[in-house]
Amino acid sequence: MILITGGAGYIGSHVNKLLAKSGMKTVVYDNLSTGHRENLKWGEFVEGDILDTARLEQALREYKVDCVMHFAAFIEVGESMSDPEKYYRNNAAGAISVLSAMRRAGVGKFVFSSTCATYGMPLKIPLTEDHPQNPINVYGRTKLMVERALADFSAAYGFRYAALRYFNASGADPELETGELHTPETHLIPNILAAADSGGAVGMFGDDYPTPDGTCIRDYIHVSDLASAHMLAAQYLDGGGASDCFNLGNGNGFSVRQVIAAAEAVTGRKISVTKKPRRPGDPPVLLGDASKAVKILGWKPQFAGLDTIVRTAWQWHKKTAKPGV
After folding, report:
1. Each residue's pLDDT tens digit, 193-215
2. Which terminus of the chain has a smaller tally of CB atoms within 10 A, N or C?
3. Residue among 10, 63, 87, 139 flagged as catalytic
4. Taking the model in full, what pTM does it have?
């Protein structure tokens, strides 16, 4: 049995679906503060907060859990800088609460939803797992704190983990049973699609970067490919794999202008752009080297094309958008 914290959210729900389809038993543990009850279509569900260590321990024991996948984190970089207490309490202290409950219940395998934000400003491209970790925002710092706690737990308690550092999660379940439902939505692709649908404009933060078209280049990875990596990581640990960290990305970067062009092709609509100043801390290019995950986990992205990512996101948007939005 696998317990999925934050399993009612965007990435967690895709992972839960894949695990269930693969014949694995799951239980979602979520307080539904940012997750959605309609995503609870697979496995069991326990409503609870990750800071409630006793309730977590009870769920781990009741469902005879042998592995935890942890997605229950706040993810907005800007908010993390304006309200750091919220992020340190949930992302850092909350993760420690999960690990404490696991120790008490005798659960020793942990798959962690980490982030490329732990690296900070890239010193080299593409980023590899041995790149220095110097996060430049509170969100990235809270994730790095958890990674360091995991290393210490592993050394002291015989605990094993896989920390998956991924880049720009995007797209939606091709069968449209789950998808992206953030409030507010800050991710580029859904905001571009919302502009295409409403006739509004999408903001472009900087068009004078040292890139071929002047806009930032990012590594977009389909959420279903992220889900498969999490399942493979759990299987790796189940097979006795040692604690380790893995990048997850396509290794193929796409600029903001390229994403907008792909969205115009998919939707058949012209998308208006509002040029805005650069955002502080935005590197021109952010790409990951995922060869370690390919080699050790046997991971292979199935939805690597930008058109596929945008198409599934657009289909999900059309299914879920409110009239007039």
Report:
1. 888 888 888 888 888 889 999 99
2. C
3. 139
4. 0.92
Percent pLDDT > 90 in the chain is: 61
CA 29, CA 234: separation in Å to the nearest integer? 17
For the chain, state the CA radius of gyration: 19
pLDDT tens readout for residues 90-126: 999 999 999 999 999 999 999 999 999 899 988 998 9
Tell me the C-alpha distance between 213 and 217, whole Å. Answer: 9
- Residue 220 and residue 309 in contact, taking contact as beta carbons nearer than 8 Å: yes
Distance, in Å, from the CA atom of 165 to the CA atom of 133, rounded to the nearest integer, reads 11
- What Cα–Cα distance (Å) separates residue 130 from each residue in 119, 246, 275? 10, 10, 36
Residue 263 sits in which domain range? 188-218+251-319
**Could you give the number of structural domains in the chain?**
2
Q: Let me know if 236 is a catalytic residue.
A: no
- How confident is the model at residue 321, as a pLDDT? 67
In the block, which residue shows the tokens 């699609």?
Answer: 193
Across the strands, what pairs with 286? 218
> Do 195 and 244 lie in a common domain?
no
Tokens 């789950």 sit at which residue? 178
Q: What is the CATH number of the domain that holds 114?
A: 3.40.50.720
Q: What is the pLDDT of residue 323?
A: 46
Start-to-end CA span in the chain (Å):
40
Structure-token pair, residue 321: 């958008």
19: which 2 tokens? 């695990």
CA distance 209 to 251: 20
Residue whose C-alpha is closest to residue 282's, from 205, 192, 186, 184: 205
The pair phi, psi for residue 84, each rounded to 5°, is: -65, -30
